[in-house]
Amino acid sequence: MTDYKSVSKPVRKKDAMALVTGKPVYCDDLAPKDCLVIKLLRSPYAHALIEDINTSAAEKVSGIEAIYTYKDVPNNRFTTAGQTYPEASPYDRLILEKRLRYVGDPVAIVAGESEKAAEKALKLIKVKYKVLEPLLDFRKAKDNSIIVHPEDNWKALCPVGADNKRNLCAHEVSENGDLEKAFSECDAIVEETYHTKANQQAMMETFRAYASKDVYNRLTIVSATQITFHVRRIVATALGIPKADVRVIKPRIGGGFGAKQTAVMEVYPAFVTYKTGKNSKLVFTREETQTASSPRHEMEVKVRIGATKDGIIKALDMYSISNTGAYGEHGPTTAGLTGHKALALYSRAEAYRFVYDVVYTNIMAAGAYRGYGAPQGIFAVESAVDELAHKLNMDPAKIREINITKEGDIMPAYYNEPANSCALDRCLEKVKDMIDWDSKYPARDMGNGKIRSVGMALALQGSCISNLDVGSVALKVNDDGFYSLMIGASDMGTGCDTILAQMAADCMCCDVDNIVVQGVDTDSSPYDSGSYASSTTYITGMAVVKTCASLTEKIKKYGALLMGCDEKDVDFNGKEVYRISADEKISLKDIANSSMCNNSNALYASEGHASPVSPPPFMAGAVEIEVDKETGKVDIIDYKAAVDCGTVINPNLARVQTEGGIAQGIGMALYEDISYNEKGVCRSNSFMQYRIPTRQDVGRTEVDFEPSYEPTGPFGAKSIGEIVINTPPPAIANAVYNATGVRIRELPITPEKIYKGMKDED
Amino acid sequence: MEIKLWINGKKITDNVEPDMPMLEFLRDKGCYSVKRGCETSGCGLCTVWLDGKPILSCTVPLMRANGRHITTLEGLQEEAAEFGAFLADEGAEQCGFCNPGFIMNVLAMARELDAPSEEDIKEYLSGNLCRCTGYMGQLRAVKKYIEHKKGARSDD
Ligand code: FES
Ligand code: FES
User: Fold this and answer.
1) A305 - beta bridge partners?
2) Would residue A46 count as lying in a domain?
3) Ligand 2 mean position, distance from CA B97 (Å)
4) pLDDT per residue over A535-582, tens digit each?
5) Residues on chain B touching A652 (C-beta within 8 angstroms)
6) For residues B83 and B77, what is the distance between their CA atoms, to the nearest angstrom?
7) A398 and A491: one domain?
8) Tens digits of per-residue pLDDT, A46-85?
9) How far, in Å, CA of A80 to CA of A261, rounded?
10) Is the pLDDT of residue A1 over 90?
11) How is domain B76-155 classified at the architecture level of CATH?
């Protein structure tokens, strides 16, 4: 591997010391002190119409500035999904509406001088509801007589198979090969249904944004968001104002994981400030963040998978129903990943089919959460592959070795893309080693009422949305030759600002400290579609490489001009432009400083990048667990992971990404479950009711890398951010089976389910 | 209600509503490191010290601090940077939102426990949630910091 100076080095994050010393860098730390405080009145019913709403008593509360109801907002439907226009998610929302579609749907916006005043006013708003029967079972949603979106101005901008009159947010069929013929040649077939639950991203910083009017009377929104540029479009569309009138800025944000890939709440402060001309802010409580946000889509996934007696997988068939809840944010797109990613793990199969329906129901809308539909499919497929192995009396590691996608394979389920860089086989081998598979599989009775067992799973993800995502950066030379790197991608705490600076540093042959980075401001940053789909390293990283190349040309040209020689006769080594044919040079410092006097050639470059492919990173995960035979309780002992994310740009950050993703995956596997009562009230409304893993729940995690080299990626890099959440649910379910013989096909894998399974077995 | 207390060594007298939460009061006084992550005493983000002992500022009523000393990360900048450097060298500060509360507790632990084992560390810090790191990088940083402190102690 080439020896880089910054790339592949554990460079400290540029904002690290500010964060660890608690500097005021987040949205609510920066909000002006005179902001109106916004509170939302929310629907107590899962399905209702507002018959009458009276705000007069509430308006009299001292300190109340304004109260808005559905009568006050524009009738422009929009989606809050952070996606490139035209969005695949249907335009099915208004800022406020007469029809309420889930418990928590906003009924009124209250803006007051203090939280106390706003809360007092909330209680005084009188609403008469016409309560309707809610649609709560997603399996019955398609063609149900209860229609979640009967309105005529509901609109799908893209052909995603949506039909609001059928509660369908999306539908698709894709296939390759002769499926039934392939199944007819199988000696063993597994056909099972798996059920994954909705999960909260549970980032520590809840949703928040503040708005103000600037000196040009434009609306400025400072938001904890992953999709700075999309927020500008979403807000302008919702308010029905020109996009030129909106500016969005992203400060440091306290985690996102996809939650902030939806503009969950920016429209409210935007609307209040637009109407009042005053500063306003909205900070969601944890309860609101738990109950009125954008969690993972609950899915039911049916898998049929068949193999010959030698373990050769010939056919894969998947049908999934995805529950998008009351609104369709990310509904059509997440559903696609469920099959397109999971089935691509076994690209050598002769035939596959993948069908999905995405349906509306009267619960909180789902959204984007790390993995974006893939974890659901991977739980199903990676469980089913183990079930198939057991049916064939094969080691689950062995059946994978035979069938997995290898470098150079075409992946039919993955949009027919070739696996140009793929170390999945090496990942599998390494993870077996790391967990000591051959001696630990399947299980050992510890003799104290506990069984220890191992389980494994594989994963892939994308590196961007091909033919769609756009990344661009700008780079300029400043006094004495330091560079500013202007980034349009939103660093959400993962360190992408630093990673991009590392790449720029190596391209410009300088120290990473010589590059200052600037976060996202839609007025000044070059356009970037946003931090999602794992695309920042791969797409924006490539934009960095291109931008640096074009700035280098400009530096060379200007250096040649200053030396009075031909530009073909010079080169740049990071410190100076020097002549190839003569012993003459000029330092970058002198070039930079003289460029600021009597110069018509700006030392500034900006390039963009999009990609026709989305090369998948790959990963193998293996877990060792201990199951209590009396109670069914599972403890994680060790989690081992081997990841192929192409060239690792920053090993520390990639490792922490992986460890963090695995912890979230463990939460998804063992604890996390957004549940509702029979009236559609969300029970999981706090960290007491919705438990995420603590440091005592995750055991030990060990991560290693098996890099491949991706020819289309910057420095050979692919992505890392999302793939890492995928393996724990199936690996743990497989380990539970290996320990107890109980197959859990519905997440989370609770002690009760295991206990019941063990009981039923006896 | 009249209250008199010390925030990071500075004496403050103020008139506050009796139900003023300590967390909001501290942020009002410019201690922006103090974060809120929940309403149910379940995340640890709001951890500060009251007379040197870690407490949840979202839960303890402000009036309990009357006549006493509150310390926030703003008052421990040098120590925060010293430990924080270990965290940063693991890449484990990540989004940073949980860091202030976590670091308040780490620094309290370093004072309270002599040679904490891995289990002691996990136990002491169990109330501090972090959604970004998966806790491993934090653990590596804490262990290295404790080693470093021990080394520094045996040096003098
Ligand atoms: S804010 Fe969550 S424990 Fe205090
Ligand atoms: S670093 Fe983001 S929550 Fe801990």
Assistant:
1) A190, A316
2) yes
3) 5
4) 889 999 999 999 999 999 999 999 999 999 999 999 999 999 999 999
5) 89-91, 137
6) 10
7) no
8) 999 999 999 999 999 999 999 999 999 999 999 999 999 9
9) 9
10) no
11) Orthogonal Bundle (1.10)
Question: From ligand 2's centre to the CA of A235, what distance in Å?
Answer: 28
Kindly provide the ipTM of the predicted complex, given to two decimals: 0.98
- Under 8 Å between Cβ of A424 and A435: no
Whether A147 is covered by a domain: the verdict is: no
**B36 Cα to the center of ligand 2, angstroms:** 13
Find the closest chain B residue to A285 by CA distance: B38
Distance CA A701, CA A623 (A): 9
CATH of the domain at A543: 3.30.365.10
Cα separation, A95 vs B21, in Å, equals 32
**Predicted structure pTM score:** 0.97
User: Which of A20, A21, A203 is nearest residue B131 as measured by Cβ atoms?
Assistant: A203
Q: Are B92 and B141 in contact (CB under 8 A)?
A: yes
How far does B39 lie from chain A, in Å, by closest CA? 7
A208 neighbourhood in chain B, CB within 8 Å: none
Put simply, the answer to whether A695 touches B135 (Cβ < 8 Å) is yes
Structure confidence at residue B155 (pLDDT): 64
Ligand 1 centroid vs A194 CA: distance in angstroms?
Answer: 35
Owning domain of residue A248: 31-132+204-255+259-291
The second-level CATH assignment, the architecture, of B2-74 is Roll (3.10)
Residue A44 phi/psi, 5-degree rounding, is -85, -5
| Residues of chain B positioned with their CB less than 8 A from the CB of A17 | 81, 84-85, 88
Note whether A287 and A313 are same-domain residues.
no
Among B46, B95, B102, B121, pick the best mutation site for testing chain A contact (most A Cβ within 10 A).
B95
How many domains, in total, are found in chain A?
Answer: 3
The beta-carbon neighbor of A286 closest among B38, B72, B88 is B38
pLDDT in tens, A650-687: 999 999 999 999 999 999 999 999 999 999 999 999 99
Residues 6+ apart with CB under 8 A from B71: B8, B48, B49, B52, B104
Is any ligand 1 atom within 6 A of the Cβ of residue B44?
Answer: yes
